[in-house]
Amino acid sequence: MNSWNPTCESMSREEMRKLQSERLIKTVRRIYHNVPYYRNKMQQLGLLPEDINSVDDLKKLPFTYKQDLRDTYPYGLFAAPLSEIVRIHASSGTTGRPTVVGYTRNDITVWSEVMARTLTAAGAGKESFIQIAYGYGLFTGGLGVHYGAERIGASVIPISGGNTKRQIQIMKDFGTTHIACTPSYALYLAETMEEMGIRKEELSLKAGVFGAEPWTDNMRKEIENKLGIKAIDIYGLSEVIGPGVAFECECQNGLHISEDHFIPEIIDPQTGEVLPEGEKGELVFTTITKEGIPLIRYRTRDISSLTYEKCECGRTLVRMSRVSGRTDDMLIIRGVNVFPSQIESVLLEIGETAPHYLLIVDRVGKLDTLEILVEVSDKLFSDEIKRLEELENKIRREIESTLGITAKVRLVEPKTIERSEGKAKRVIDKRNLK
Ligand code: DLL
Description:
This protein has helices at 6-9, 13-34, 36-44, 66-71, 105-121, 140-151, 164-174, 183-196, 217-227, 340-350, 378-381, 385-403, 430-433, and strands spanning 85-90, 100-104, 129-132, 155-157, 178-181, 207-211, 230-237, 242-248, 255-257, 262-267, 281-287, 298-304, 306-307, 319-320, 325-326, 331-333, 336-338, 353-364, 367-376, 408-412, 427-429.
């Protein structure tokens, strides 16, 4: 096991509960005394800090929603004096006001620690060259990975996102061993490498840490084959800390949550009730060491499940399953619940198409329509029309039998679907625009 902090990553369940309880108690006191917004919320429920004595009391506490951060924009949920805040990040805010988060010096230390665990689990160390192609800026991806990479003593290549050809040249010339970017960008890198005539054997790449957007196991296989690396899933969100909330180990069987800092729960998104181990639902986090902006039972909207079984790697940290979608990216098409990731799985299983697709949802009259644009390889595109038609039909049939909806499938020329340097855009829902 490559472990950065074996004491924290492999402690017994009892020790973990004890530690979590102590830290939760402190956090609840902190927010009650320092954040009027939380104090009001607790008072409305008739709750005092003394009512929270262990992790078992977590369920008594109110949820926090993204909207709460918006309502208190920009600094209303901060629990430390602004003079102690050393860094500010924010979400892009494409819908509504951005959400703003602040870090004290100690928060940055914790963030570096959890990212050090993440990178160590991905096999990185002092000798590694880590190329960070997540965006630097208000987005947490670039700087979050950066601090963790420096913490483990690796050589950091802080290239940020974009400039794809240059990324590849640098990867080759600088001997990059680890790449950090979104999974969709990793595929774009692989594709551009082919165009440039650079083979994976010419690189020194060993592994990549990919996250910030949902992806599937099939997509993982594509990335691993095309780049000749191990593709590790990393998860996080700016409200909780940024990347570093959870990471896969070499077993690639669920993501270990750094639960000595972030307590997870899975709830039924409709009723708010806590669900038993193994059941799928909405992931909720309570931060228990953050000073700048501690959050209580933060509703992520991400769908996952938890397992407390000890992992083969030796870590005892609870594992979350790969995020299979978001409660709010679920499309309802003619009454059927559809997640883009389900369609992606079908496409990648069939093969023959590139893993680039776009879903266009519309409403004609009273009827919802779904059109799936899928790129095919150069070779296939120049093939007979009949072959293309056969493939379109095959995809349509598969979608119909696995998801129970009819869709129009359109195969498009290679490289016609726009590539993203950060999070990929997979859905255009024209119904929202009307
Ligand atoms: O995306 C933090 C991050 C940066 C994570 C780099 C990993 C790597 P936000 O911009 O606040 O923060 O977006 C958070 O992205 O709630 C999920 O919906 C999604 N997400 C993040 N990681 C994964 C993942 C960063 N591994 C939102 N799989 C989260 C699926 C992910 N979805």
